[in-house]
Design goal:
- With about 130 residues, the protein is an alpha+beta fold.
- It is about 20% helix and about 40% strand.
- The protein is built from 2 helices and 5 strands, in the order βαββββα.
- It has a 5-stranded antiparallel sheet with strand order 1-3-4-5-2.
- Strand 3 and strand 4 (about 95-100) form a beta hairpin.
Length: about 130
Amino acid sequence: MKSRPKVGAVGEQKFVVEAKHAIDFADGGMPPVLCTPWLIWFLEHAAREAVLPCLEAGESTVGLEIEVRHVAPTPLGHTVTCAARVIHVDGARITFQVEAHDQTELIARGVHRLQVIRVAGFAKRVEQKAVSR
């Protein structure tokens, strides 16, 4: 890393909930709403945004852990803002407080951990695993 991420640094992602982001069992009266896997995808990308300025060429991030409570539904067409704030840095491991709000309320809150990795080493490990199957 060029520099350690500072505690308090924030990354953000905004998106409009589209049909592709909705639960896939919206039938029988169940309205289409934002599904948790897509919410997590945007939360992880918000965390990554907070770290990107600190990365050197050849570095990237991978998710290690996520604990999120998805507490409120968000219908199609609503804008969601996902924010990730750095709360702890331990070498290449970074911990974030994550939150998501739609236009009305808090919809999710939790903790996420990322690991900064060297892409070449990571790719080599994946390649070795792929050939060993």
